[in-house]
Design goal:
By secondary structure, the protein is of the alpha/beta class. It contains 15 helices and 24 strands. Strands 2-1-10-9-11-12-13-14 form an eight-stranded mixed beta sheet. It has a four-stranded parallel beta sheet with strand order 4-3-5-6, with helices on both faces. Strand 11, helix 10 and strand 12 form a beta-alpha-beta unit. Helix 7 packs across helix 8 and helix 10 crosses helix 11. The protein binds methylmalonyl-coenzyme A and adenosine monophosphate. Adenosine monophosphate (AMP) binds next to strand 13, strand 18 and strand 19.
Length: 514
Amino acid sequence: MACGPIFPDAWRANTMTENLFARLERRFPEDRYRLLIQTDTEAQYTYEGMDQETAGYAGVFARLNLEPGDRVAALVDKSAQSLFLYLACLRFGLIYVPLNTAYRRKELEYFLGDAEPALVIGRSQDESSLRNLLPSAPHVYTLDSSGKGTLAEAASTALPFTGVRAVRSDDTAAIVYTSGTTGQPKGAMITHGNLAGNAETLVTAWSFTADDTLLHVLPLCHVHGLFVACHCALWSGARMRFLTEPDTAKILYYLPEASVMMGVPTHYARLIDSGQLTRDRCGNMRLFISGSAPLQPQTFQDFEQRTGHKILERYGMTETGMNTSNPVPGPRLPGTVGPPLPGIEVRIVKPDETPARTGETGNLQIRGSNVFKGYWHKPEKTSEAFTDDGYFITGDLASQDENRYIRIDGRRKDLIISGGYNIYPKEVELCIDGIPEVIESAVIGLPHPDYGETVCAVVVLRSGITLSEAALIHHVKKELASFKAPKSVCFVDELPRNAMGKVRKNVLRERLSA
Ligand code: MCA
Ligand code: AMP
């Protein structure tokens, strides 16, 4: 049955909760029985199921006397339940703090210490270390489906909270950590209004309807998988096929039933490499979307040749959600991230803050209701991130053509993006410099066919000392999430420096790329 957009134009929701729960309650009660999630283990949940599960979790929040604005940190694997946990926080006016399960002890210590959660939801294998990390942690539960200490068990004895707490659109809905180029990671405070505005914009721009099936292949601990992907489905009443692992064979298996897929360029490069990507397999697909990292024009072309589909590339950030997008109807140009999305002001300025000319590269700045309200507990970092007239300084370098299509030409910030994950060289350098055998190191990104870029460490050892590449990588993996570990190590006698004593990373990149 074709049903078109669930949401009539006249209805405007200021928050995700208003859109989701109020819609089910008052506007479109029949949508309760539509499928929301099917997993790759064939578990399935309707919108009604989501309503009940989130009411159960919110019942636990009520029993724990959590107050609006309290933080709930989640260190959980991807599952339907982890999405419900997030939605339950929205429902109860709590601030959701997603954390990547790849993070190591020291990283977690910092995030939990900074966010000061009233409740932590973890995996059973992390429970005791979480309790040790948080001696004064008020409450810790796990997210397994049943058993002692699980949120499900707590929910089974709590009175379901079937209401929806009223929130203002500028109340914080989530704190998502982004690493800083200097200093420590910053928690971006993303408001209910940011989420709702961006969801509505994307649903319209990408023509989402209740007829869509989104092939969901991304983790739920970052903005791309949690907000961009899930919100498009939830806002439009669509269905999602949740893949718990980013496995190419599984993506290929479920492609025929899907109509939309969102991924990072690595997903698309792997699909092409599989040799099994055909037009037939994509027969039901209407849209492939890519972001979080640059999509190589070659990948765009190879994908189109095999499937007939032009991948739609868009550009966003944790702090802003999505800013620009190639169009659904209209030309999708490889190597560009499309024009600004409606309602989002994008400008490109030269170092003296005057506007860059058409085609000229400059600093990309963003203003709009999609832009976050600031960094948690870091007012100075917040004011440094904005211009006097309220534009957010992205740290990306870009140019714009005569049709307003934007090209991301580079980054002012020292950042490596590997398979869509951001890695800050400074953090890895500090970790390597902590090895007794090491005098100093420089961490750079090198081009890579699968991950786009990978981490390479250039290391100076104390004289007469040896250290193997494997031992160095092992050390980093003990301290930091393993995706941050170097994929290659190059030992040198000294690092090239400029007259100011600064390491010339561009020289290293040129030498090692060659
Ligand atoms: C995993 N590994 C990686 C990466 N992913 N190494 C470098 N870069 C990576 N991206 C390491 C693991 O630590 C592991 O190491 C080994 O590779 C294999 O892990 P596996 O789980 O098999 O990973 P994979 O299959 O290689 O995963 C690749 C992936 C994944 C599917 C591209 O990284 C992924 O889901 N990326 C998406 C990230 C994302 O959602 N970014 C959005 C941020 P070991 O064996 O040593 O343990 S939000 C954002 O950027 C903004 C808002 C935006 O615009 O979207
Ligand atoms: P994050 O801090 O994880 O939100 O990552 C945001 C950064 O990812 C942006 O500032 C860009 O540098 C990069 N990014 C996101 N989408 C794209 C894209 N389509 N092309 C190039 N870079 C991108």
